[in-house]
Amino acid sequence: MDLSRLTLLNKAYFCKMKNLYLLLFPVLVGCYTPKRDCSDFKIGKFKYEALIDGNLEKTVFIRNDSFQIEIYKNQVDTSKIRWINECEFILTPLNPESILDKYQMHMKILSTTNNTYRFEYNEVGKKQKETGMAERIISENEN
């Protein structure tokens, strides 16, 4: 077999393989769904950190199936939880101190790992959504 024929065969093989990859790639990527074990995060103690005006701010929250207690900058807020489904819930503040504190928040868990979950949230009735990552806080006596 001469070299030019071998080169043409290699090019033909490469083109067929390239077409196969182009066909399979969307199928393989489209079938991926992130892990979402929301029930693992219905109860527990968590922290959420966010950059606010250039400063890293931390919120700690303790949740059971009905209530969530949030601690932010040494202020404690308690909200009632109404679960919509396994991964979504509405937070309703119990003792709002101002008009801004009265708004309900819609929370949705998007994906989970062993000790973290990614979520999106928005004020009920508003379209603008924010995202964040919460991490389970494991105390020394739980290990």
Walkthrough of the structure:
- With 143 residues, this protein is α+β, with helices and mostly antiparallel strands.
- The chain is built from one helix and eight strands; from the N terminus they run αββββββββ.
- The protein has one helix spanning 3-30; strands at 44-52, 55-63, 67-72, 75-85, 88-93, 105-112, 116-123, 130-136.
- Strands 1-2-3-4-5-6-7-8 form an eight-stranded antiparallel barrel.
- It is globular, with a radius of gyration of 24 Å.
Number of strands: 8
CATH level-1 class of the largest domain: Mainly Beta
Round the Cα radius of gyration to an integer and report it. 24 Å
Beta-strand content: 35-45%
Which spans of ≥5 residues are poorly predicted at pLDDT below 50? none
* N to C succession of SSEs: HEEEEEEEE
Outline the biggest β-sheet. 8 strands, antiparallel, barrel
The coarse silhouette is globular
> Helical stretch count?
1
Task: Provide tags for this entry.
Lipocalin; 8-stranded antiparallel β-barrel; globular; alpha+beta; 143 residues
How are the secondary structure elements laid out?
Blueprint: H1 3-30, E1 44-52, E2 55-63, E3 67-72, E4 75-85, E5 88-93, E6 105-112, E7 116-123, E8 130-136
Antiparallel strand pairs: 1-2, 1-8, 2-3, 3-4, 4-5, 5-6, 6-7, 7-8
In short:
This protein has 143 residues and is of the alpha+beta class.
